[in-house]
């Protein structure tokens, strides 16, 4: 899978026009072969920033997409509205099961895991007090982390400990 991320900062006076261009581009892209998910968003932390996230089946689909004349016109039009040059990154990726990250999709509050007097550390290397990948605050309050089900946790953690 190919992941394309991009962003552009737009003056408030041009925001409506830029969003319309982005939404039109995303809608048009959905009809192209190999397009999995093209999306246009406003950045919640920077209202002047529009973010583009596109998922494509493979690089051939991306190259075909970039060759479409409308894609070139979109890039030129959005660049004219930009406060600074647009940014774009292209990644080759594969989807991983959630359990490989050390957390699953369990609802409800996280009950702190204690083993031999210390807290378990998630597979991705932060302490339970630091981070919840779902925006749920500190990991100790998020049951989405499941060390026991992945084998990534510290020794002594059992499924019943969660």
Write structural notes for this entry.
- The strands form two sheets. The protein has a four-stranded antiparallel β-sheet. It has a two-stranded antiparallel ribbon with strand order 5-6.
- The chain starts with a strand and ends in a 12-residue tail after the last helix.
- The chain has two domains: 2-92, Alpha-Beta Plaits, CATH 3.30.70.100; 97-162, no CATH class.
- The model is unreliable at 107-162 (pLDDT under 50).
- Strand 2 and strand 3 form a beta hairpin.
- It is an alpha+beta fold and 162 residues long.
- The protein has helices at residues 15-30, 59-67, 69-81, 147-150; strands at 2-9, 35-42, 49-56, 87-92, 114-115, 118-119.
- It is built from four helices and six strands; from the N terminus they run βαββααβββα.
What keyword list fits this structure?
21% strand; 2 domains; 6 strands; 26% helix; alpha+beta; 162 residues; globular; 4 helices; Alpha-Beta Plaits; 4-stranded antiparallel beta sheet; disordered C terminus; two-stranded antiparallel ribbon
């Amino acid at each position: 899978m190919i992941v394309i991320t991009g962003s552009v900062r737009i003056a408030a006076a041009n925001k409506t026009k830029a969003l319309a261009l982005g939404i039109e581009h995303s809608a048009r892209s959905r009809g192209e072969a190999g397009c999995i998910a093209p999306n246009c968003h406003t950045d919640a932390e920077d209202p002047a920033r529009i973010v583009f996230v596109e998922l494509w089946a493979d690089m051939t689909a991306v190259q075909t997409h970039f060759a479409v004349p409308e894609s070139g016109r979109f890039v030129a039009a959005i660049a004219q509205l930009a406060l600074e040059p647009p940014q774009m990154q292209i990644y080759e990726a594969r989807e991983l099961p959630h359990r490989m990250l050390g957390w699953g999709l369990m609802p409800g509050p996280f009950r702190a895991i204690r083993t031999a007097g210390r807290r378990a550390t998630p597979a991705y290397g932060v302490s339970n007090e630091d981070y919840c990948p779902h925006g749920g605050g500190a990991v100790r309050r998020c049951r989405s982390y499941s060390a026991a089900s992945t084998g990534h946790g510290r020794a002594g953690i059992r499924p019943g400990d969660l």
